[in-house]
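Problem 12. The chain below contains 397 residues. Write out its predicted structure in token notation.
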Amino acid sequence: MIFEYRAIKDNKIIRSKIESDSENAVADYLKANDLLPIEIKQQKDQMKFSLLDNVGFIDVVNFTRQLAIMLNAGLTLVDCFEILKKQTVKKSLFKIIDEIDSDLRGGKSFSSSLLKYPHVFPKLYVALVKSGEASGKLSEILLKLSDNLEKQREFQGKTKSALIYPLVILIAMGIVMFVTITFVIPKLLDLYKDFNVDLPVTTLLLIKVSSFFQNFWPMIIAGIAGLIVLGGQYAKTASGRLMIDTYALKMPVFSNIIKTSALVDSTRTLSILINSGVSILDGLNIVIDTTNNLVYQNAYRNILRQVEKGISLGVAMENENVFPIILIQMVMVGEQTGHLDETLGRISRYFEMESELAMKTITTLIEPFILVILGLGVGFLVLSVITPIYSLTNSFK
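Solution.
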């Protein structure tokens, strides 16, 4: 979304535009740059203010790694962006680099400049850059950040493929069965209408089901499409999303992957943030924003409130019912030893291995399961269609 704002700086009113997720994000950006906001409103003209949507994940990873390497070689931040501008071919990315370069030359910090592009640089990214600026270890943190982004994308890709594969197979099976029952089976069963023969129960059942599908298939398709649209709209609401995320954690077979993938992201994120010098409270705030599952998001929000009151992170996790015992125990040990970041990193790798093992198990079991379902379906059809033929043959004899 594009916002127009008016703000005061050095007793002067400044008017400008910015692309952001919300008015609060715009206000945070203005305050970070010593601007006192007077008015913030969404621009009525919905034409894109920039080409930010064209900047992909790989672009951000490459940008981060190149910047880290140049900083590690001893170049200044301004020199790095001057080189990046010469090397960047993609117009959308060049626009961002050029604007950040202008901000840096104007005296703004790198992290505050990144706040203008929330669609490209998430809160985790900005927080780590800010920590790197404060500690003087920006190049190290950027290298760590680029590695984390690549690991995150690789892991999420594996998770999505493990969940999407059986879904695609089931949808394909459903379509084939629908077409077969609606259009193919009726033509085969018409052969038996002219013969006075007793049909088996399976054939009579198939005739009724096929007749229903043949007569009402447009309404069936419309009903399914309507349910998908309504379900999609409901899933966008807070109550709908919470219901779906809650059921996902209880879903047979797939729940283990969903749980461990959510824990991998949150523990890895918190580990990197704490290791980079970000406080636990700020880290939990970022984890809340980066966690996709609403159940875990609410749990981390409750944990944040408890930690603010002085309760330890491990005890706060224990008060929630969604975290496994091994995570709670490891966090308590990390707090007692003073190595919470390392402990969270280890437990994140453990959950990642558990998730990959669960994904391999599912992909191993799904194929024979699908073959069994197909075998039962084909067997029922063959039995229903072929059995009457023997009855016809006996009647002719």
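Discussion. The beta strands are 2-9, 12-19, 36-42. Students who got a different answer should revisit the alignment rule from Section 12.3.
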